[in-house]
Amino acid sequence: MKVYLEYAIRRVHCESCRGVKTEQMSWAEPSSNFTRSFE
């Protein structure tokens, strides 16, 4: 069974640096095993 996840990463205004940051998603990192096929 194939499952596709679609998720929009939130962008937030950072008060300390006065810039825009995106949230970190550990499960979406290129080295994460969660996005590969389970063996």
Automatic annotation (TrEMBL):
<protein>
    <recommendedName>
        <fullName>Transposase IS204/IS1001/IS1096/IS1165 zinc-finger domain-containing protein</fullName>
    </recommendedName>
</protein>
